[in-house]
Structure formats: C-alpha cells, structure tokens
Design a protein that fits this description.
The structure is a single chain. The protein is mainly α and 280 residues long. Helix content is 74%, strand content 1%. The protein contains twelve helices and two strands; from the N terminus they run ααααβαααβααααα. The chain has a two-stranded parallel sheet with strand order 1-2.
Amino acid sequence: MAEDKENNSTKAKGMSFLDHLEALRWHVVRSVAALLIITSVLFFFSDFIFDTILFGPTKPNFITYRALCRLSEWLHLGNSLCVKNTAQFKIVNTEIWGQLTMYMWGTIIAGLILTMPYVLWELWRFISPALKPKEIKYTRGVVFGASFLFLLGVCFSYFIIIPWTVTFLNTFKLSSGTEVENLFNVRSYISTVTTLVLWIGVLFELPMVTYILTSIGIISSGFLKKYRKHSVVVVLIVAALIAPPDVASQVFISIPLYLLFEVSIFVSKYAERRKAKAAN
C-alpha cells in the first residue's frame, strides 16, 4: 500500500502542467456531473426545499423559535425569549423572472450543499498524489473532517445566524413615529439566506485547512499566534462582506469566526504534536 502511494507521488511529480490540467478537468467534470444529478432530483422536492427549508425561518413555528420559547420557560422568563413577529414577515416579488430565477438558484444551492462531500473527495483525489506518504498519513480522514465542518457551518448558519438576522431585520425600524412597512423582495431574501449558509459553511473549514497546512509544514501554531491581532481585522472584514449591512449582524457573525481562528491554533498545535510523535 505504501509502495502504491509512493508510485502515485512519483507519477504526479513527473506529470507536466498540461497533464495536471487534464487531471483537474476530469475531477471538475465528475463534480459538476454529481451536482447536476443531485440538483435534478431535488427539483422534485422543491416544495420541501422552499416551504420547509428556505422560508422556514420566516414562520413562527420554526425549530429555533420553538427552542427559544422552551428555553424561556425552563429559565422561568415567561415568553420573553419567544419570537412572535415572524407572522408579519412579508415576501414579495417585483421582477417578472424573479420567482423562476430564485426557484432555480435555491435548488442549485441545495444541490451544492449535498454534493459538497463528494466535491471535497474529488479535490482530495487531485491533491493527494502530489503529497509524500508521510504527508498523506498525517492528513488521513481529511475528507470526512472537511465535510463534517462544512455541514456544521451550514447548520450553525441556518439554525442560529439566519433566524436571528431575519428577526432583527424584520423588526428593525427607522423611526418610531413613522410607520414603515417591511416588504422583502424574494430575490433579496433567498440571496441573503443562501449566501450566509454557503460562506459560513466554507469558513468553518478553517480548522481543517490549518491542520493540513501545519501537517505539511507550511504554517505553524507560532505563526498563527504571531498574527492573532491581525486576525481580528480580517474577521471583521470577512463578516462585513458576507453579513447583511447592519452592525449587529456583522458582530454576531464575527464572534464565531474569531472563535474558529482560536480553535485553529489548538488544531495546529495538535498537528505539530502528531508530527513530532511520528518522527520519534
């Protein structure tokens, strides 16, 4: 087995740039084919995708709101944590192609999320031949770990970030003296939800990326600690790019992103200890 890996590594190093491009092309083709197949199947479940999933956070019986109500009762706070204003959440369409476009976009994003573990596996198949046997040993289980972190980020965004964002933006008012009704465009709503879900899912890959880069000797825990202060600025910039344009949402997203950076430092230390143990 080790011999096969060594042969694959040697073969990969002997490939020309065009050979690498050809190999990458087939990995991309298979990934796109998987995405098309899963997306095509999901078109038959569009009611579930939109009514239950995408528009779920706009309904008062959404699982997060129910959990908050139960938590409020458990803490003897009455109904102070219950969300009651989602019943007034109104979504409108102002473009002739708006609903059809969002129908296609929402289904494709759902397909991409479900296909992501396979895409990561194809990416690993493209990268792994260039690694040495020891590097492959250090990074064993990387596809499972990356898939888990991506799906964890998706769930965190969907069940925590999005309900809070939706509730905040639906209840926010410019003035208490003038009544301004919130009518959300369907394109704006679905774009916000899907963007947050995808980007936070990707950002949750940071610990896995850190583990891989530390394992192959590109970065170290010392390097991450050195730039800890700079990471705060980077986190705020990233949060500003992916969050809705309000300070509260950006701060709310920045906190878990910075915690991910801190987790990455511990992950880097673990990778260094594992390398040192294997070297002895």
